Amino acid sequence: MRYRTTLWMTTVALTLMTGYASAQNNPLKEESTPSAVQSMHNKDGDHLGRRLKHHLQKLKADLKLSADQEPAWVALTSAMAPPVRPSHPPQADMEKLSMPERLEKMKLLMTQFHEVRMAELEKHAAAVKTFYAVLTPEQKKIFDARAMPGWMHRGPHD
């Protein structure tokens, strides 16, 4: 038992030290190259954009819209387009700040982010209400069931 514990702790320690040494030996990336997190967000954003496009195409086919309803659909889909997200401030700029200044900067950025998200939500809600008004009762049932499938049960990204 002691042998296993010692072996496990040694393995963990070596893993941590290797990771630390590796991080110390890697030169800093240039400011112009995106970080791994930014690359991941860009990839996820592309994936979510494709998923949204596919979902909207399927929803449109299921709704069987008339020619009169087409302009409302175009307005809805343009309002649902993913917005361009503001980028984070460069890490070097944040490192120049003291911890209290960083926290204040982070609070300001979060406030701005939430204001942008609320504006998006209001724009989406207005577009949905306008579109919903031109649907027939049968189309409303389909839209209610399929516009945001599983939202309440699995979350928005499932």
Order of helices and strands: HHHHHHH
Largest sheet: none
Gap between N and C termini, in Å? 43 Å
Strands, count: 0
Could you give a quick summary of the protein structure above?
With 158 residues, the protein is mainly alpha-helical. It is 73% helix and 0% strand.
Describe the protein's topology.
Layout: H1 2-25, H2 36-63, H3 70-79, H4 91-95, H5 99-133, H6 137-146, H7 151-154
Structure commentary:
By secondary structure, the protein is mainly alpha-helical. Helix 3 (70-79) runs antiparallel to helix 5 (99-133). The protein contains seven helices and no strands. The chain has helices at 2-25, 36-63, 70-79, 91-95, 99-133, 137-146, 151-154. The chain has one domain (42-154).
Please supply descriptive tags for the structure shown above.
disordered C terminus; elongated; 0% strand; 73% helix; 158 residues; mainly alpha
